[in-house]
Amino acid sequence: xxxxxxxxxxxxxxxxxxxxxxxxxxxxxxxxxxxxxxxxxxxxxxxxxxxxxxxxxxxxxxxxxxxxxxxxxxxxxxxxxxxxxxxxxxxxxxxxxxxxxxxxxxxxxxxxxxxxxxxxxxxxxxxxxxxxxxxxxxxxxxxxxxxxxxxxxxxxxxxxxxxxxxxxxxxxxxxxxxxxxxxxxxxxxxxxxxxxxxxxxxxxxxxxxxxxxx
Amino acid sequence: xxxxxxxxxxxxxxxxxxxxxxxxxxxxxxxxxxxxxxxxxxxxxxxxxxxxxxxxxxxxxxxxxxxxxxxxxxxxxxxxxxxxxxxxxxxxxxxxxxxxxxxxxxxxxxxxxxxxxxxxxxxx
Lengths: 214, 124
Fold this sequence. Notes:
Strand content of chain A: under 5%
CATH class of chain B: Mainly Alpha
Structural class of chain A: mainly alpha
CATH topology of chain B: Arc Repressor Mutant, subunit A
Number of domains of chain A: 2
Largest interface: A-B, 33 and 30 residues
Oligomer: heterodimer
Low-confidence stretches of chain B: none
Shape of chain A: elongated
Distance between the termini of chain B: 34 Å
Number of domains of chain B: 1
Order of helices and strands of chain B: HEHHEEH
Order of helices and strands of chain A: HHHHHHHEHHHEH
Low-confidence stretches of chain A: 200-214
Shape of chain B: globular
Distance between the termini of chain A: 52 Å
Mean pLDDT of chain A: 85
Mean pLDDT of chain B: 86
Number of strands of chain B: 3
Strand content of chain B: 5-15%
Helix content of chain B: 55-70%
Radius of gyration of chain A: 22 Å
Number of helices of chain B: 4
Structural class of chain B: mainly alpha
Strand order of the largest sheet of chain B: 1-3-2
């Protein structure tokens, strides 16, 4: 049996992390279900009326168009992420070259490069899965979502990074230049895309400002 | 799938398309008298149309959110004595203009449709 809380959790699990939408939807559904119960319905009936949690989450998300960022901004975010991981790998390089005899310096450099590449992959997957964005993407106002706008799963987060592992990164990136939604090949494969962050997190707009009065 | 089942399906899909196209108008209309919260709108809709226009609760909330995003409704959270805060919806000026425009559009369409369907036609 699904409980009301279990249902609400299932809905908001599909909404992007960060932003106020999750909390708002949770409160609204909680209030709604409470009202249904007060009017004599069972939890099953109330949840049945609300429908499939994923479909509900996706129709909330359909209210906000997803906007693809300029590719230059994605490139800048990638450069920022590489710089962050490189900075994190620096101590290993410095300590390694100091502690070991100089004949092994090449080995230290290679080991650092391998560790940094692996670390880069793990960092990107973890950040995109848990927060919907890497630090670089955060600084440049980008986030990773499913094509519907929903939060991505761990599987998708991993598939997104496979081209690096397979060494087909450049070919993969080329797809972003030519496809309609500017998706890399492995983004299409994983059903994910990168969008402007403010397009998928709600920012309540007052109708009274900005729009000209008739 | 048999022929008659296919027909059934076709009819249901007309109903679905009609609802999808008119749901925003319906919600704006129900909000015209004044502020209301989600559950009030749902129950008003069900009781007034005796189920003919029945929409599931799950379709209504995203429509309200869409109207909010578009600036047609303003929202206000009110803390209740017990339980979670409640979200109230109210039409904005832009919302009233949208309501007038959509009402006009629907009236024109439904008049034309009725006229078309009621016209006597000679056997060719």
